[in-house]
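An example makes the point: we print one protein in full, the chain in one-letter code, the fold tokenised, without further comment:
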Amino acid sequence: QVDVAAMARLFGYVDVTDTGFIVAVLSITFNPLFWNVVARWEHKTRALSRVFGSPRAACYCLGAVILVLNCVRSHCFTEAMKSQPKLEGWDYHWTYYSGLAISAVGTLFVISSFLALGFTGTFLGDYFGILMEEKVTSFPFSVLDNPMYWGSTAIYLGWSLMHASPAGLLLTAVVAISYTIAVLYEG
């Protein structure tokens, strides 16, 4: 059972009307929407492949854009956390190191996913007609579905704990919801 009073106290620290917080939410929700819309558009029209001269070049360019957007998202997330109050009761070594451990596990999932899929497998190569020879079932895909999404979510969760940030926790929930919707859309 969820303790609603505790959640209300926790999120009482968050100003959801703060411009930085709103920009972070928009950045978080924009990213998966963008790459899914662009990838499906490419699959239907092959427009990017024609513009860039080949599917591989187009996929690499989209991948570069996605990486830049992810850097912007992380920056907005961090700035939103910094502009909001910390939860003083969490500003201890154990919270920091717990967050560090969660971020490390998330980083393991993200990096191992990338290594298993390669650049074009990670950045929607299948929508460009760049198919892998077989489905990847090795680690981390043997442990959970969509390990890059959940690894990224874990990184944000850990980052939020490391900074004792209620705003970060709420933004992490937005990340998780955005990825859940993306998984449903992609599936």
The two ends are 30 Å apart (CA to CA). Helices lie at 4-11, 19-45, 47-52, 55-82, 93-122, 147-162, 166-186. The chain has one domain: 4-186. The mean pLDDT is 93.
